[in-house]
Design brief:
Two copies of one chain form a homodimer. By secondary structure, chain A is mainly alpha-helical. The first copy, chain A, is elongated, with a radius of gyration of 30 Å.
Chain lengths: 454, 454
């Protein structure tokens, strides 16, 4: 946090504690809603939060409300009168209302819907029907629509009349009588055109669109690719049903990256910030994969017990090194491919290009590692483990090479197959990869050791 | 890729091959620059690309150029006449020009600078001086500035006159004579105000700003927090020197997430998409950590050799399981904390809160895993490894508990210390964590085994 912000927070605390509410309001008016919400949640007790929220200038209340965490929102709603609740809801954009409703318990949802305008309630219910990860769940039906035959001047009139409550006014959508999207025109186009120009002549008649059921990750990729500030959402008939703004896409990109990182580290994804998670929810997110990986490690124990009597203790000492190297190498490939799939660089049909690339990279990596491994064992490990023979050293280096190449192949193929089977590459590939690579590299090691050394 | 896009690409290929250039141009005019660039790079040979680029409608050329990969840009520039190069450069925003210059070899940079307007050249050179990861390197000096005493009507006149070449016109910046930023006003504010209103009365006089040397990751976080479409960049004196638009922030968020994921998987970050990377550059990115981790694995070998004569083969079979569980548990904590630092949820001063949380979570996780581990060994592993005693089973379960708790602590503390030392948490923490946790859990196992079983 910046020093400036810390001073501001101290001032707020001081005003609040000494009940200088006029000063408090003046200070708040100059602040961003996100900062006010952060102050409220990090510096005040629950009872104080409720009192503080009532002190907020009216025009800020719903903006601050949106920025608070789900728990705080629920606590606040419980203290609201119906009138207060209605005021906050009426002031929010519909997509924000829907986001909040999705996180609330049933009785709170009922109260929110009861206190919405009938027309809004209908739209909210429609939005709630879209799957959680679809474009429909991100969009808001509050956009500016124009008709193709309007002049620029009339378009500006319409923007001025209806713009106040729209999430963005900078991209306007041109629809026909059947609500089919026929074009897009930006306020920049309008400002740089003449007053008498007809919208049809200045609009972009082939706008990029998304469909209601499109995956929200794909939507975010479109924003990243085309640099728009809003994208229109159409249904199967081509009717414009809503828009998605870039700030929602930014959130999706952040959240999806966090989720993928969590999955790769064998954690069930959580949307809550780390410090707000309870110990119990941390336990819940981490225990499943720990248990699963503990159980699958039975394979490695079985292999080691199976070869036990026939493998010298000298060779046992290199098991962690071999498994570690194979695991690291496989992890590099699987994580690279998982991320490439997530950002849209790689699809299933690229599988042979990917394999060919990993085969070549794996060959040279394996060769390099095998040579370094040979040198390390011969010149370094012999210092504390003097019984190693040159044949054993060569064997270990060869196993390094083979298991690294194997790990690269397993690591790159698994995520692509997972994607093809409509499973989540990040969930399936990382832990499965570890188990397969661990077991395979151990089998390669033990069986080669027996063939060559006995 | 969507079917629609594939059909479009086929049409382009057909028009290009049968030399129907008028049709080709008509089709291109309806397409987004990013899609044209993608078609060019994925479907045409280098020589064809150059010919294709010359066929592009003039107004699209520089937009398509920006969207192509560095290699393609370099190849294209080499075939440009000075006049063509100047046309493309003049049409680009300065921040894009700077991005391209940063990737080009010296002789190409010279040609670009030679063919820029003298005024642009000066600004380009200033922008080039900002560090690669700073706000200054992201910004463009092309923004709309207004003065506080203007009327709304005059502001619109100014936007109409100067807006064409600005990267965004929707946020306008109010500066005084010394170029100090005094406020921000959006086109929405202007459209909803009266013509005679004075800018000073409708502007936001306390805008959120970033400083030229601020880390670009922090800048991206501000976009994500405040939902702006542009942020003003000020220098130490408070003068407005440029703006950063949300599309650049989106790219930073994507790239930083990819980089963090690569670092966590022990890969040196690369900005190129996977399929465009050469085998050699993949080798380069992966070999350093593989070698380092190979060398540090010497510790585990040393420990195993050191305890060799005193540890029964029955217990050896559980080494991979114990090291694996500790590694997974440590990875969960370190990755969680690394990501929390990256998105701004956790700072160094939260270290005791983090440790306390991980201690409690680690205690319950360790307890659960120890119980499951005990059951697994006693009921499952004894099937193929019948010599295990109940004392050994209890020992292994106890080591599971202790090393898991230890792994959680190491995993959460390391990234925070790395951050405090101004090192990159993702680079330092992940591989170092593995090495420390592997060695410690092995030492705990072997020494407890000796104390208890002998």
């Amino acid at each position: 946090m910046s020093e400036e912000m810390e001073m501001l927070y101290e001032k707020l605390t001081h005003c609040f504690e000494t009940r200088k509410f006029a000063d408090l309001r003046m200070t708040l008016l100059d602040m961003e809603p996100a900062d006010i919400a952060q102050f409220m949640e990090n510096n005040l007790e629950e009872k104080e939060q409720i009192m503080f929220f009532r002190l907020l200038p009216k025009e800020l209340a719903s903006d601050v409300f949106i920025e608070t965490e789900t728990d705080t929102q629920e606590a606040l709603i419980k203290t609201f009168t119906d009138k207060e609740l209605k005021a906050v809801i009426d002031d929010m954009f519909l997509d924000d209302t829907v986001d909040i409703i999705e996180e609330m318990p049933a009785n709170v949802v009922k109260r929110i819907l009861k206190n919405s305008d009938p027309e809004n309630r209908k739209q909210i219910n429609e939005l709630l029907e879209y799957p959680d990860d679809s474009a429909g769940s991100l969009m808001t039906p509050e956009f500016i629509s124009l008709s193709a035959s309007m002049t620029v001047e009339r378009a500006f009139d319409k923007i001025r009349q209806t713009g106040l409550n729209k999430e963005t006014i900078y991209t306007c959508y041109v629809t026909n009588r059947k609500k089919i999207l026929v074009g897009v025109v930006t306020v920049k186009d309008l400002l740089l055109a003449n007053k008498e120009d007809i919208i049809e002549n200045i609009m972009d008649a082939n706008p990029i669109t998304v469909e209601t059921l499109e995956d929200k990750e794909q939507v975010a990729q479109k924003f990243s690719k085309y640099d728009f500030i809003a994208l229109p959402v159409i249904d199967k008939e081509g009717c414009l049903v809503g828009i998605i703004t870039v700030d929602d896409a930014v959130d999706v990109i952040q959240e999806e990256a966090t989720e993928d990182i969590q999955k790769m580290a064998a954690i069930l994804p959580s949307e809550k910030p780390y410090l707000k998670q309870s110990v119990w929810s941390i336990w819940m997110g981490r225990i499943p994969w720990l248990v699963l990986l503990l159980v699958t490690s039975t394979f490695t124990s079985m292999i080691l017990v199976g070869y036990e009597s026939r493998l010298s203790p000298v060779l046992y000492a290199f098991v962690p090194m071999l498994m570690g190297t194979a695991g690291n190498a496989g992890g590099q490939s699987s994580v690279t491919v998982i991320r490439a799939i997530a950002v849209g660089d790689v699809e299933f049909r690229d599988i042979f290009r990917v394999i060919w690339k990993e085969l070549r990279a794996g060959f040279f990596l394996g060769l390099t590692i095998a040579i370094i491994c040979f040198a390390k064992i011969w010149f370094l490990d012999r210092l504390y483990n003097p019984d190693i023979t040159i044949l054993e050293t060569a064997l270990i280096s060869a196993v390094c090479f083979i298991s690294l190449l194997m790990a690269k192949l397993v690591g790159c193929i698994l995520p692509l197959i997972a994607k093809k089977c409509r499973l989540d590459p990040a969930v399936v590939a990382s832990p499965l990869m570890t188990t397969i690579v661990d077991a395979l590299s151990l089998i390669i090691y033990c069986s080669l050791a027996i063939v060559i050394l006995i």
